[in-house]
Amino acid sequence: MTLRVEEITREQHLAFVAARGSASHMQVPSWGEVKPDWRAESIGWLDEGGRIVGAGLVLYRPVPRLKRYLAYLPEGPVIPWHEGELRPWLDPLVAHARGRGAFTVRMGPPVVARRWDAPTVKDAIADPAAGRLRDVGADETEPRAAEVVEQLRRLGWQQGADGDTDGFSAGQPRYVFQVPFAGRSLEEIRDGLNQQWRRNIKKAEKAGVKVVEGGLDDLPVFYELYRETAERDRFIPRPLGYFQRMWTALRAEDPDRMRLYLAHHDGEVLSAATMLTVGTHVWYSYGASTSRRREVQPNNAVQWRMMSDAHERGAAVYDLRGITDTLDEGNHLLGLLRFKAGTGGRAAEYVGEWDYPVSRLLHKAFGLYMARR
Questions:
Q1: Average pLDDT of the residues in 327-332
Q2: Which H helix or E strand runs over 58?
Q3: What is the Cα–Cα distance from 336 to 348, expressed in whole angstroms?
Q4: 59: which of 29, 44, 85, 96 lies 20 to 30 Å off by Cα?
């Protein structure tokens, strides 16, 4: 099989993703508009007949004072990772990026390696001898993932650093929590929630919490809660403009691509969250809440409304995004893992992000530069 990679139009890119049913929200054209510091390009893999058989969004980040770029495909590209040899797909990708001035190609193959069911995660959290999720026996192992990793190494790709000590990668999260929806009724999904989740949803309903969809004008309200959350959970918040840019770019591409939900109680917004959709995959993207009146359980109310809406729109999976790998009781992120595990879904480990050094010298220099920032 001989493939070539070339730039494709936005319409061709979107048509390919639609035909596949789904892809990461970071692998559609509009995501490039969310990242103004990067130059975005839609690329396609074309077979001998000129048919598009793969696609990806490449973000090019310039190196200070050099006309060279880091070429990044977050959670992509969209190619048949589970079929046959990868060389015919990845060699033309590297060649194309080299022609664009890239010194390194970085990608995040959307390939799951292992999964842990919610009861397994719960038992691991309760086990004082369990230090990290990666060391806990998985309920399911994907044999093809090991083949993908072996091929990547053989082709000269290098696995990126696993990120900080909490298990979040420096790029996209390697560990996520997902709730399967395909073939399940909403009642079955609700029955899959743990007892505390079901109780909290009822508490919110009895307390009169109302969850509504918001619009662009409601983003400042979301943002004030988000800033409070950032201070409480000790992370650096993105600016308001980032979310306004997301809203404008993603919804211009598809009105269902991004939604905003707000939980009201007694005239005050107590919790808010954004939801992203590409085909049958739905993500809980950003969440925000105040510490006030937490007893009325607005966070559970928001999540259940988003899950209900996602199910109504035909979602196959509801993705709660990143979770911590650590099971240390003293880690402030463990509470988030407990919250997500209460949905009754599954923790998943991806194969991580991988780099191909087009220029080994510049690749090494860039790594040193990033480490000193």
A1: 86
A2: strand 52-62
A3: 15
A4: 85
**Residue type at 140 in one-letter notation:** E
What pLDDT, in 10s, does the model give residues 15-67?
999 999 999 999 999 999 999 899 999 999 999 999 999 999 999 998 877 78
Residue with tokens 């992509």: 76
Residues present in the chain in total = 373
Name the phi and psi angles at 345, rounded to 5.
Answer: -85, -145
* Interatomic CA distance for residues 195 and 202, integer angstroms: 11
Q: What are the CA-CA distances from residue 25 to residues 59, 65, 115, 249 (Å)? A: 14, 31, 21, 12
> Which CA distances in Å does 194 have to 140, 143, 342?
21, 30, 5
Query: Three-state SS for 242?
Result: helix
> Got the DSSP string for 75-115?
T--BS-TTSS-SHHHHHHHHHHHHHTTEEEEEE----EEEE
Comparing 4-108+353-372 with 112-141+157-350, is the CATH topology the same? yes
| Side-chain half-sphere CA neighbours of 315 within 13 A | 26
End-to-end Cα distance, the chain: 43
- pTM for this entry: 0.93
Read off the pLDDT band of 368 (50, 70, 90). confident
Position 186, amino acid: L
- What top-level class would CATH report for the domain 4-108+353-372? alpha beta
Structure tokens at 161: 């650093």
Q: Give the sign of the dihedral formed by CA 89, CA 170, CA 325, CA 346.
A: negative
- Cβ contact 253:269 at 8 Å: no
